[in-house]
Design brief:
Four copies of one chain form a homotetramer. In chain A, helix 1 crosses helix 8 and helix 6 runs antiparallel to helix 8. Chain A has eight helices and 18 strands. Chain A has 366 residues and is of the alpha+beta class. In chain A, strand 14 and strand 15 form a beta hairpin. The longest helix of chain A is centred in the C-terminal third of the chain and has 24 residues. Chain A has a five-stranded antiparallel β-sheet with strand order 1-2-3-7-4, covered by helices on one side. Chain A has a five-stranded antiparallel β-sheet with strand order 9-8-10-16-11. Chains in contact: A-B, A-C, A-D, B-C, B-D, C-D. Chains A and B meet through strand 1, helix 2, helix 6, strand 11 and helix 7 of A and strand 1, helix 2, helix 6, strand 11 and helix 7 of B. Chains A, B, C, D: InterPro entries: Chorismate_synth (IPR000453), Chorismate_synth_AroC_sf (IPR035904), Chorismate_synthase_CS (IPR020541). Chains A, B, C, D: Homotetramer. Chains A, B, C, D: Pathway: Metabolic intermediate biosynthesis; chorismate biosynthesis; chorismate from D-erythrose 4-phosphate and phosphoenolpyruvate: step 7/7.
């Protein structure tokens, strides 16, 4: 309960540092009897892994996962599933100079004051490398949600820096290095990123995630609202500075007569709510946006201080993502899956008996 | 753990419905030996209570709190503090017509499908009346944080519908009905709200909350990051659709060279991070914005369905806030206080021994 | 999470002191749609309440419960059920002399050192008066377990001091002041207790509890084993010093060939396991014994110290149970019910889908 | 939260099966800055490991632990410590015959009905092999408790079957294969065990554990009492059927005037309480006994059923401990250490400020 576990009933407990022996997690609470293979997990890991284009970090990590427990003859047994990803491409020497200083925008200063000690190799525990673990655990969650409820969870990049990315097709998302749902805009994105890299700078992004086919009734009423749990999960991703559900910040200037979604026998007329009312899913698409800040590691010289409080100038060289948002899409999908499976289980714990005779209206008007 | 408890070590467990016997909570984990009186709590409740201006609901609730336990001779004893607020102004008859139908934008439809039963009186458990409880519990948290660390937590309305409210002074916040930090703009806000009420419509708002003097080092590293816990807490407030920390959604279009706050011996040069790096407090002001949607209860006729799935037209009459954001400021302050005290306790549990010899740089440049 | 909540999914959070305004709890996670009335709860409270015979404390407490929330039109709604029992017969003056001293065998010394402050009125939070709350919450749990699974939870006194109480009939338990399953032995028990009271002394007891008709498969495999959770629950009852399941301490001298229960197509041949194997219920009766220590409050003079560490002699006068075990039976039943309902919900959360084609063998051989 | 995690603030989450790839755990919440090495952990593992005498299982497992994370330059960093023990001596062929049948006294039947699937290789997750993980985690807890508070946690075998083992000296415990605090009795124990093995039977044992130098004030007041948490922890050890604290079951026949420990300026006069009053430590030795049942795996033929409910006769051959109690001592010590460290952290979370001017009286009279 010291900040390395996620979920009440489908619980992921994570470990590992960027340049230690490896990273991994224990997934506890997975329903028994589901087929799961290394390939199921590896597929998702490969979507997040570094080194796949010039727009992301050039660190070479195959991110090969080993399943240590919890699976018997290809099926989950209901006991903990331990996953291990060994680190391969540690270059501790890259980080020697930062031992005595605090990189601006990073957790160096805060870890140091919290713990009085820190593993400086690649940011140690604070590195976004840890997010691979969530993608691995999320793959299991996604599979169960898909098989049992037909839930589909997909994300895409909706903004890169100043550039809005109009949605064209889900099919495009896997066809470019940006998770952009729009192949036409890709050359513009490439030029934009090339320029930023040339300036030795970085930039932010917005990721959007959607869950389709979520049943009505998931989420808790007061404090573990589904939207609150999603906000929590997303804000737990490195570099995320904002989360919104449905109309989000646009709600501020909306009138009630516009925002509030009418119900009709054929379904909800609109989805400003983003699929959640009173903290509980409505059966509509759950829609989430997250704001990802620009990478703090840039090669420009910046003011900082050392451990003695003396001023220093430092530039962060080494291998870094010029836009951490680019690899954030599979992570955000995983986080949404982890929240949903936890609430699926919580729902059937308390309300497993409930049979509602009222017709469930479709989430979307056909 | 069914969504009515908040916090790991300073835990608030809430109960009550809008038109039942009352609402209240148990605060568990409060450090012993702190002076606390009914007045300390009542003061905060009075800031949130209904009926204080024409811009909020006209329901008359004195919101008088009774302390049932946990205090001996005016001091906390370390045992659970139970708080009870009896409901006074129940008008169940106002709600008779909504028993068979689902109010658009409300939790009626989702509660019904989750539980198979719902208390329709004033929205039952889903009513924002429950937030009084958090304000009461938050008063205890605020007091401890203030006395022990000098932490000051204050909020204000930063946007009302389309109107931006420029910050002038904290002193103004308590001087108008909107929690606006700007008395000059109040006549404009009043006209705006009067027009919206006349149109039988409602509107959203943005609330900003700031915590000053938070020590460096609070928050957990991976999943219970301080910003994630704040996002969770805020999104658990009724009608909140978005949360951002520091630069928030503006980070998307920022460059790393701009966003990432430099450190100098005199302090951080800027605060785009909003006081949190790597999930852990930096010692700077923690700054949070939340988007509050327009009230769903409006007196205009809207499409909905009844329990049999038949179309109905319904207008929500009765006593409602035309902008729920107006009373949200003390609630948001309370939620931030509750998150901070929980992490204060978590910090000293794990790291109580830590002595860091490095100078702590001030949050702001003097 | 500061020791006043019990259960992960059916969670009871308790508050209150012996001589404060009252005691009570919030029951969170109760499945929706169950009929529950004040009478259902009062019935159990009346079994535990003081003043019903000369063998228990003469404090007069009607222990009248008020339901503050969570019930609508006589049914649980799935939202928190708050229960309040106002204290009636506070006699704080009885306790004036113990403010500065520590009663031997009580929590005075430990509370003082833990919290630096304590409510000395009747032991404050450490009083067994708090157990009324568990009996109230347990009544709800018992009802659900009975209605949904036919589970019957019953307890009785199996030893009073040196006297073994042979089991004759469940019917006898409600027919005497001792919860003895044996009316013949009651005169002997009465004489025994009268003598102890005359000696101004107290004595211990053993309580046995049985749960019948528990399905196979409840309990967790490694750390939240059903037997571990039962041991935890029982040891949380004031004055309990030991817990055993099935053969318990007799297992030490048993051979494996004797202890280990054979399975036959007609059922288990024996039940040394007490209905739990590998932490999971077998479908047999769950059988538990608990050792209750003698009341520490006795009217004999005893050595103690005051807050300054000076020696004092003190006798605890006032109204006390000469054998706290006598009223422990309904408490132990309640605790077992609370553990079982929590695991019922946990089981269906993770394994709700499981269909086992293997015949479930009966718990007992017909 | 599905039964594989222990502790609120010092949390051990365990994984692994008897004949899978390995076993291990994540220790979360360890205070930062403590020296810890593989040797510190290995030392404790070696005390529990199999194959060290003819009186325990002949399975050959070196139980070599690898630290995967959480340690930097030999010190804990406050981030999760992941431990991995690869299985070496898997002999899955030994277990082929039990796939279709349920071993009496084992968890086969209950796992099958709970999960609908089970890993039959050596009992899978239900194997006591998992306890190695606790010993490893417990080594970290023990070290911190020792260094910070001087706490010493030691256990011994106090009964083997019908044989009482009188306490002679702590020094003897490490000098014989039984953890007996009495070398003189060892030949008798050896003969006893040899006879039982010859009869192809097994026998139970009693283990006693003592924690010295625990400060006053650890433990929670109502539900997470220190004794309740100890009972929970111990009953979570495979084969444990009973737990008692202090006088335990002997309290039943004790008078209050005997049981209740007097306080004097020089210390407590006696320790029937076992170092805990009102759920909170007194500063005296914490004393715990646990009853361990006889091993269920015996080579005698026993009645059972197969998955179709048909009767079968089965004898469990293979490599088994004839008395699982023999290797239970280090496990019980580890469990006590894990409970104590968790409450040490919980104590300083809530009461870190408390300064009590009253003299703390010694646990023992000098």
């Amino acid at each position: 309960m010291s900040g390395n576990s996620l979920g009440l009933l489908f619980t992921v407990t994570s470990f590992g540092e960027s340049h230690g022996a490896g990273i991994g997690c224990i997934v506890d609470g997975c329903p028994p009897g589901m087929d799961i293979s290394v390939e199921d997990i590896q597929l998702e890991l490969d979507r997040r892994k570094p080194g796949t284009s010039r727009h992301v970090t050039q660190r070479k990590e195959p991110d090969t996962v080993e399943i240590l427990s919890g699976i018997y003859e290809g099926k989950t047994t209901g006991t903990p599933i331990a996953l291990l990803i060994r680190n391969q491409d540690q270059r501790s020497q890259d980080y020697g100079k930062i031992v005595e200083t605090f990189r601006p925008g990073h957790a160096d200063y805060t870890y140091w004051h919290k713990y009085g000690i820190r593993d400086p190799r690649g940011g140690g525990r604070s590195s976004a490398r840890e997010t691979a673990v969530r993608v691995a655990a999320g793959a299991i969650a996604k599979k169960w949600l898909k098989e049992k409820f037909g839930i589909v969870i997909r994300g895409y990049m909706s903004k890169l820096g100043e550039i809005d990315i109009p949605f064209q097709s889900w099919d495009h998302v896997s066809e470019n290095a940006f998770f952009a749902p729009n192949n036409d805009i890709v050359p513009q994105l490439e030029d934009y990123m090339d320029a930023i890299r040339k300036e030795r700078d970085s930039v932010g992004a917005q990721i959007s995630v959607v869950a389709e086919n979520v049943p009505v009734g998931w989420g808790e009423p007061v404090y573990d609202r589904l939207d609150a749990e999603i906000a929590y999960a997303m804000m737990n991703i490195n570099a995320v500075k904002g989360v919104e559900i449905g109309a989000g910040f646009d709600s501020i200037a909306q009138r009630g007569s516009v925002h509030c979604d009418e119900l009709t026998p054929k379904g909800f007329a609109t989805n400003h709510a983003g699929g959640i009312l009173g903290g509980i899913s409505t059966g509509q698409d759950i829609t989430v946006n997250l704001a990802v800040k620009p990478t703090s590691s840039i090669a420009q010289e910046r003011q900082s201080i050392d451990k003695n409080g003396n001023p220093v100038m430092m530039a962060t060289t080494g291998r870094h993502d010029p836009c951490v948002g680019i690899r954030a899409t599979p992570i955000a999908e995983a986080m949404l899956a982890l929240v949903l499976i936890d609430h699926a289980l919580r729902h059937r714990a308390q309300c497993g008996d409930v049979v509602v005779n009222t017709p469930r209206i479709p989430g979307k008007i056909a």
